[in-house]
Design goal:
alpha/beta, binds flavin-adenine dinucleotide, nine-stranded mixed β-sheet, 19 strands, about 425 residues
Length: about 425
């Protein structure tokens, strides 16, 4: 199909590239039962990890999904698996002390390990690879800041890293655009569609009922448990979990007032020769800059002839043809040789952020939630899903340093109109 945009190939699609290898089901409609032990709202990484562990712990679990399974960010993301937080180790150490910094980054490590464990335990063929990450600096000052930050992490957490100077960076990535960076050898990448598909299969195998195309409209607290109002039915549930992240809404107003949705954009190029791809990204890492508002790129997992590129977080242009052109411009700014490159897939997805840019797990008036991942939901959603299950099952290991109520603002009711402006302002700061 031709889209009238020079950034799009004749075969272009606005669906995530990941859906080619892991197509979305559009017909599954299990009718909800009248009672369930645990009702989970949302069928992404968080919801399914909670569901698998709850079902294996002996609970009867129903996952309600407004659209097709995996409709949200879990099948739209970049597939980067790292130990990422918008607050640096040094910042937490300075503001809240060394112990808190260690506890926080310790939990990021738990989340990182959790993904590897899940992939191995469930035998999920999702191109999981610890290929290492190259974090790129966009100024010499940033390069120095990164070296300092990762020096602290090595000293206090024992996490190895290597600085890569601007001269050395060509071994990793064929551009002069960056001012060097930091290589973290063990960070990983995976194919988000296949990871999600593996979780969905494991959940079904564990006996979880997936009610797709069944939005939850609201819930009522009862003396024991909840009545959950879903499309066409009322369901009694002993426990209730919200795993809606950037896709949540009025069905849980308390959470809606604390999680701000925002869009991010991604594209995958039309095929090139493998040699050309390798020449552009010889290091075969997951590449990402260290700005607040990041650009990222890597060789597409499972296809050495394509490059995956993303950015423009927080923008709200509904026309993906325009976003394709803007992504193309950003990519060519990094790799001038890629002038004229076209995309086969361009898509968007919604992230969820908190006012203090920190993910949260918690329980409000009996309702469990894990949310506000600010771009780290692959590992953090995996860990929080597992932790939510442990909490409900009364098992050890459900505690978290991220268990404090997310802040809100008295004026915020769920319309995050200001996020694009805030992100633009941050991007100006980056520059
Ligand atoms: C472009 C992009 C790139 C990203 N890259 C990365 C990355 O590389 N690494 C990383 O760690 N993170 C990344 N993220 C973030 C990550 O994808 C998310 O944090 C994570 O997928 C959140 O998972 P989740 O299960 O909590 O929510 P989601 O996967 O968003 O699922 C929420 C689900 O809830 C459903 N839902 C909402 N309301 C209702 C309702 N009322 N009733 C029933 N169902 C409902 C939605 O339909 C949706 O399917 C990226 C995000 C985007 C958009």
């Amino acid at each position: 199909m031709a889209f009238g945009s020079s950034a799009l190939s004749n075969n272009a699609s606005f669906d995530p590239y990941w859906w080619r290898a892991a197509p979305h089901e559009d017909q599954t409609r299990a009718a909800p039962l009248k009672r369930t032990d645990v009702a989970i709202v949302g069928s992404g990484i968080t919801g399914l990890n909670a569901a698998i562990n709850l079902a294996r712990g002996g609970r009867q679990v129903t996952v309600f999904e407004a659209k097709e399974p995996g409709h949200g960010a879990s099948t739209r993301n970049a597939g980067y698996v790292g130990r990422t937080l918008k607050h640096s180790f040094g910042e937490i150490m300075e503001g809240q002390g060394l112990d808190m910094a260690k506890a926080t980054y310790g939990e990021l490590m738990d989340a990182f390990i959790a993904v590897k464990d899940v992939v191995e335990r469930e035998n999920i063929a999702c191109h999981y690879k610890q290929q290492g990450r190259l974090l790129l600096a966009t100024s010499t000052k940033m390069y120095d800041d990164m070296a300092r930050e990762f020096g602290l992490r090595e000293e206090h957490l024992g996490e190895p890293f290597q600085t890569v100077s601007r001269v050395e960076q060509r071994v990793e990535i064929a551009t002069e655009h960056y001012f060097g960076g930091v290589r973290i050898p063990d960070h990983a990448g995976l194919h988000p569609g296949l990871y999600h598909q593996g979780l969905l299969d494991a959940a079904r195998e564990a006996g979880v009922t997936i009610c797709a195309f069944t939005p939850v409209y609201g819930f009522r607290k009862e003396t024991e448990g909840f009545t959950v109002l879903v499309k066409g039915a009322k369901v009694e549930a002993r426990d209730l979990v919200f795993a809606t992240n950037g896709y949540g809404g009025r069905e849980f107003p308390w959470l809606q007032r604390r999680i701000m949705p925002f869009h991010a954009y991604q594209a995958v190029t039309a095929p090139m020769s493998e040699n050309r791809v390798r020449a552009l990204l010889p290091g075969d890492r997951t590449f990402i800059d260290w700005n607040f508002n990041v650009d990222w790129m890597r060789i597409a997992p499972g296809d050495d002839t394509r490059i995956q590129f993303g950015g423009l977080t927080g923008e709200v242009d509904a026309d993906l043809r325009i976003m394709a052109e803007r992504l193309q411009q950003r990519l060519v700014r990094i790799f001038p040789d890629m002038e004229g490159i076209q995309f086969d897939n361009v898509w968007t997805g919604k992230c969820g952020g908190t006012f203090d840019i920190t993910p949260r797990i918690g329980c409000h008036e009996g309702v469990h939630y894990g949310s506000g991942y600010c771009f780290a939901g692959v590992p953090m959603g995996t860990l929080f899903g597992i932790k939510i299950a442990r909490r409900i099952l009364g098992q050890e290991g459900g505690d978290s340093v991220f268990d404090t109520a997310p802040p809100t603002r008295f004026w915020y009711r769920g319309n995050a109109w200001f996020v694009p402006h805030a992100l633009k302002w941050m991007s100006r700061n980056d520059r």
